[in-house]
Amino acid sequence: MSEPFETAPDPVPTQPVGDPWPAPLVSAAPAAPVDDAPTRPVSYAPAADRRPAWAATEDDAEQAPRPTPEHWFDPASAEAAASGWTRPAPAAAPAGGGNRGGGRLLGLVVAVSLVSATLASAGTYGLLRASGSIDRPAATPAAVQGQTVTASQPAANEQSAITVAAANVSPAIVTITESGASENPNDPFGQIPTTGIGSGVIFDSNGWIVTNKHVVAGSTQLEVALQDGRQFSGTIYGIDTLTDLAIVKVEATGLPTAPIGNSSTAKVGQLAIAIGSPLGTYTNSVTAGIISAFGRTIQVQDGTQINNLIQTDAAINPGNSGGALLDANGDVVGINTAVAQTAEGIGFAIPINIAKPIMEQALAGQKLARPWIGIRYQALTLQIADQEKLPVSTGAWLAPASAGSTSPAVVPDSPAAKAGLKEGDIITAVDGIPITAVSPLDDILTQYTPGTTVALDVLRDGKTITLTVTLGTRPANL
Predict the structure, then answer these.
(1) pTM for this one?
(2) Is the domain of 329 the same as that of 452?
(3) Together in a domain, 300 and 415
(4) What is the sign of the dihedral through the CA atoms of 360, 363, 365 and 369?
(5) Among 45, 322, 359, 398, which is disulfide-ready with 211 (CB 3.0 to 4.6 Å)?
């Protein structure tokens, strides 16, 4: 069988022009005299071979063996040496081959190397292809300008939270309207209800709904529409005397309900999702933003002041009132109630913890009632404390009339007056619960029912005293 890549026989050397072969040397003996005897051939001895090194034969190699190139063969491994394996001796070169044997050996090595490389490449490609490494997309650089880049997907997680919350809670968000609507010729969308339009949140499957007081106040008949198209007549169960909340009842069972969360665990900067029916037309609209702040106080158009609100930049429009403000888990943490008309991205919601007591009273069949002390106060901040030279920067300050108030700090004949509270006092705690910006006085008092006796820590003239007060029922006209 022929060897692959077999080299052709070396050509017969030719005499180069201008470089004759060395002439044969004649014997040094003097020539014999010419006679008639037969001429004998002249003997001669060839000179030492002066051929160039490239023309050396295998016979020459026996006297001066050529070294094997350093990297043609790797040294035997330790395992091979231990097993007694030895490198086979090279085959004898054919006679008269010149450099033919070396050329064949070199060609064989090259051929074997090429075949081995091809097989190894094919095997490596197969392994990489099987593992998916070849088709894998290029990785994003782990560092940019010396700063480590951490792959994260906050946008994708946030989008997923909004989608899930909207799907789970929207069925429990209702649209509340009064009967009747009027045509507005300036309205390009046609018919829009003019009064009593808003939203509500079903918190119990037996037809209990929490909404805003200003959505239903003064109405005699309500229409409640669900996302699935069902409509019910609703009645006002009760109006909250503390804040802008109301409870509406419809005669139905098995209704979808919204999960009620805990507004005290909400944080500034976290995701906020608003669901409602803006303008009464775009029912179950979903908007998203963040919680911007807590403890906000606003004064609405009728002059009512609402305290301890959640501020959010989730879009809230007329008709959203009474709808739900959700956290990233899809739990209700607030009831949307108002929007700043002179600005964009400033909306307000009543914390759900403030709404929980009246929701529980409704489920228990009780009249909606709020505890009442009978004081007018300012929630202290560092700025107010510095301005008024007060010893503390947190608490409920019964500000004197000289501070700009027109009404007394302590209502006559109120529970506060009976307990001995005075103008200028600073209430710092209720039953040991400190009053702070996160836990204001009204928020703490909502945990109690009227008739409960509580202990107040009061700072007066630089000293702390404790007064006990029996909570009354907040009047409806306050």
Answers:
(1) 0.62
(2) no
(3) no
(4) positive
(5) 322
431-454 pLDDT tens trace: 999 998 878 898 899 889 999 999
Closest to 222 in 3D by CA, of 262, 242, 195, 182: 195
Whether 388 contacts 403, CB under 8 Å: yes
Q: Which residues are catalytic?
A: 214, 244, 321
Query: Residue 134 to residues 119, 139, 141, 298: CA-CA distances in angstroms?
Result: 18, 12, 18, 62
- Please say whether the beta carbons of 453 and 459 come within 8 A: no
CB 196 within 8 Å of CB 220 = no
Domain span holding position 465: 371-473
- The three-point CA angle 333-334-335 to 5° equals 145
Token readout for 4 is 């692959």
Clarify whether residues 466 and 408 are in a common domain: yes
Residues 358 and 375 reside in one and the same domain = no
Total number of domains constituting the chain: 2
Tell me the DSSP string of 354-416: HHHHHHHHHHTTPPP--EE--B--EE--HHHHHHHT-S-SSSEE---GGGT-SS-SB-TTSHH
351 and 211 in a single domain? The answer is yes
Q: What is the CATH number of the domain that holds 430?
A: 2.30.42.10
Partnered with residue 426 across adjacent β-strands are: 397, 459
Q: What is the CA radius of gyration of the chain?
A: 51
**Mean predicted confidence (pLDDT) in 410-430:** 96
Same domain (yes/no): 335, 209: yes
Digit-coded pLDDT (tens) for 353-373: 999 999 999 999 999 999 999
In the predicted structure, residue 77 carries a pLDDT above the cut 70: no
Length of the chain: 478
Cβ pair 236, 220 in contact under 8 A: no
Does pLDDT of 214 surpass 60?
Answer: yes
| Percent of the chain whose pLDDT exceeds 70 | 62
Residues 169 and 306 in one domain: yes
